[in-house]
Design brief:
alpha/beta; about 240 residues; Rossmann fold; 9-stranded mixed beta sheet; about 25% strand; 8 helices
Length: about 240
């Protein structure tokens, strides 16, 4: 069964030359992309003044970024002048019904996608997004479950991963492109970060609706901060 295309929000700071990596853009080709150019406005400066002075250049920058997507990608652009990046991204994600928010980093080539799996974190939505994106990619996917040592029967993780792999296979992803890894760990987050070093992109499910604000604000999660990889955060919202 082919998964429907997710709506993916890609924030870009248009006050400078920030641009998502082309290989990451190619991975997003099956998605409906909302490319939001946000322009930071200092507290002491009027929004109207910044917009009047910089809107034309900001629009040109976001359109330049949109042109870098594969030509058949469904891309919509907008520019927002804001004092609060976190609030803006969260609001735009809600307005457009975005299932995913991208945290960009440089990537060499997208060949291996890491999906940390926890049973209580938005798994159906995560697998739906992964299946939809991998239909247009040759990348492989690793489903990774790190259980705190002594807190879980090892068979629980194995069963969880097996079910997730079956879901991807049912969605049309070849078995040969799906790996599963279950580990017992004293430091699960460290193991996820270590696993990320052998992958090109991470797909994470947010554990609560406020996580988007956390990862785009001043206190990013350790996985996003330490992995050094682009991260697709699958939102836990309808």
């Amino acid at each position: 069964m082919r998964e429907s295309a997710p709506t993916v929000l890609v924030p870009v700071d248009v006050s400078g030359d920030e641009r998502p990596d082309p290989d990451l853009l190619a991975l997003l080709r099956p998605a409906k992309v909302v490319l939001v150019g946000w322009y930071p406005v200092p507290d002491q400066t009027a929004l109207e003044q910044m917009q009047a002075e910089h809107e034309e250049a900001a629009v040109a920058r976001i359109e330049d970024v949109a042109a870098e997507f594969p030509e058949d990608t469904d891309v919509e652009t907008l520019v927002v002048f804001t004092r609060d990046r976190t609030e803006t991204v969260d609001r735009v994600a809600d307005d457009y019904g975005a299932a995913v928010v991208v945290i960009p980093e440089e990537v060499r080539v997208v060949e291996r996608v890491l999906v940390p799996v926890r049973g209580d974190v938005n798994l159906d939505r995560v697998l739906s997004v992964v299946a939809a994106l991998l239909h247009e990619s040759e990348a492989s996917v690793t489903l990774f479950h790190a259980a705190p040592a002594g807190d879980e029967d090892p068979s629980v993780g194995t069963t969880l991963l097996s079910g997730a792999a079956d879901r991807l296979a049912d969605a049309g992803i070849d078995d040969n492109r799906i790996d599963t890894v279950a580990v017992e760990s004293d430091t699960p987050i460290d193991d996820i970060v270590d696993a990320a070093t052998n992958h090109d992109v991470l797909v994470l499910g947010e554990s609560e609706p406020s996580l988007v604000a956390q990862i785009l604000g001043d206190a990013p999660s350790r996985i996003i901060r330490e992995s050094g990889r682009p991260v697709l955060v699958v939102r836990d919202v309808e």
